[in-house]
Specification:
ten-stranded antiparallel β-sheet, 4 helices, globular
């Protein structure tokens, strides 16, 4: 059983590694966009459990943000927003995951519910993307991913990106739809790396394996 646990954790961690030496994973916290009732809290808990972004150093002044929806509960990332720190602009959107199709400039322009944060979340012009129609099917559904590569401003590095994420000078917002109740919710990245959350995903997979056995 120990071998299964170790293998599961390794496989879980490897899902976040895209071949570069520098990778940091962040989770997301729920923003009370329209209310704080039981349905909103339940959907928020699902997003906090399943949504992650890996920030990868591609060198040559580029950084990759890989968004993943890891879990079984219905949900779909349909909008990605950046409240800028050291980023210059979107260099590329990777839609190579089957079933995922995003384009630049999300609608609405700003992260729904972002005004409820302190300070308010203000999307930088040109620093957003959303899924093409049909919106939910082309979003990032469970076990899918989306990659967005950014150019860095001159003289900035990958370490600057991580530092600005930690200090909340750079924030990442998600609009998520397709929950079982049909609602939509917003999320913002947690400044601390999500190591504990990743291991929790791995242990959840172990639990699932036990049930199947």
């Amino acid at each position: 059983m120990k071998k299964i646990i170790l293998l599961t954790i390794v496989l879980t961690l490897s899902m976040f590694c895209l071949g570069a030496e520098a990778n940091v994973v962040y989770s997301f916290k729920h923003i009370a966009e329209k209310g704080d009732g039981p349905i909103e809290r339940a959907d928020g808990a699902i997003g906090e459990e399943q949504l992650f972004v890996t920030v990868t150093d591609l060198c040559a002044g580029k950084v990759l943000f890989a968004f993943r929806n890891i879990g079984q509960h219905p949900s779909s990332i349909t909008g990605v927003y950046f409240d800028d720190g050291v980023l210059l602009g979107i260099a590329a959107i990777d839609n190579s995951c089957p079933g995922v199709l995003f384009s630049r400039d999300a609608s609405p322009h700003n992260l729904p519910g972002g005004q409820n944060l302190s300070p308010p979340f203000v999307t930088t012009d040109g620093f957003s993307a959303d899924s093409d129609p049909p919106t939910q099917p082309n979003g990032v559904n469970p076990n899918e991913w989306l990659g967005i590569t950014f150019d860095l401003e001159p003289d900035n590095t990958y370490d600057n990106v991580i530092n600005t994420l930690t200090s909340a000078q750079l924030r990442i917002g998600l609009q998520v739809q397709g929950f079982a109740c049909g609602g939509s919710e917003s999320f913002v990245n947690v400044p601390e790396p999500a190591t504990i959350s990743i291991l929790s995903v791995g242990l959840s997979m172990v639990s699932l394996l036990r049930k199947r056995r």
